[in-house]
Specification:
single chain; two-stranded antiparallel ribbon
Length: 235
């Protein structure tokens, strides 16, 4: 005989969204939310890769060894599929300089970020056929408000008078790298000149916790600027 009605099962609460990594932030900042399209696609793979390299240095998993990107531990993992994928790639390859890693197989990291953001609901994958024959997948921005908020935060940091020391290191690094890639959704070309000093301040802030990161970020930014200039001239 039952002692009463069965206990009610409460609906499971959705897991809180994971904090966005630096490469994921940079990918989302490239979206023009008003036109619902991705911008700067010719240099976006390099920007995302630069963000992933910077993130791995921030986490202490890559270090600079006389200009060479060097893994600290052959078994360490971040738990982030994008970062771990790049870490494995660096481990399995011959030693290379930071500038080389900004461009080498950069689409590998871009595709991983895109798939990660689709799994987390920021993007939606839509299957289509080109000319009605060739299957392809297009990604549509799903969480527009979240991306608008991310860009508003970055613009406030760039335009505002808040001391750089009060900006989070992650946001500071994102703005500095986005500016190096001439990401028009954040820093239009006509504004780059007046923001130069602020970008340098944010670069310093983004590397404050890891002094060794300063030279790495500057080298990565130089490589990113060079590849962006090449893309802009059609090279």
């Amino acid at each position: 005989m039952s002692d009463g009605p069965p206990p009610q099962t409460l609906p499971a609460r959705p897991a809180p969204p994971l904090p966005l990594s630096l490469p994921a932030r940079l990918y989302l900042l490239a979206w023009d939310t008003s036109r619902r399209r991705l911008t700067g696609t010719d240099r976006l793979p390099h920007l995302v890769r630069a963000g992933a390299l910077t993130e791995l240095v921030r986490r202490g998993l890559l270090v600079d060894d006389d200009g060479i990107a060097t893994p600290v531990d052959l078994d360490a993992r971040t738990g982030d599929a994008v970062l771990d994928g790049l870490l494995d790639l660096v481990r399995e390859s011959c030693p290379r300089r930071w500038r080389t890693w900004v461009t080498l197989r950069a689409r590998y990291t871009l595709v991983a970020v895109r798939e990660q953001l689709a799994a987390e609901g920021y993007l939606r994958a839509e299957k289509r056929r080109v000319f009605g024959v060739f299957p392809t997948v297009e990604y549509v921005l799903e969480r527009v408000a979240a991306v608008d908020a991310l860009r508003a935060e970055a613009r406030q940091v760039l335009d505002g008078d808040r001391p750089a020391a009060e900006v989070t290191e992650l946001t500071a690094a994102a703005v500095a790298l986005a500016a190096a890639a001439r990401l028009g959704t954040l820093v239009p070309d006509r504004e780059r000149g007046r923001h130069r000093r602020r970008i340098e301040e944010l670069t310093e802030r983004g590397t404050a916790a890891v002094p060794a990161l300063r030279d790495v970020v500057r080298e990565v930014r130089t490589a990113l600027t060079a590849t962006t200039a090449t893309a802009a001239t059609g090279g």
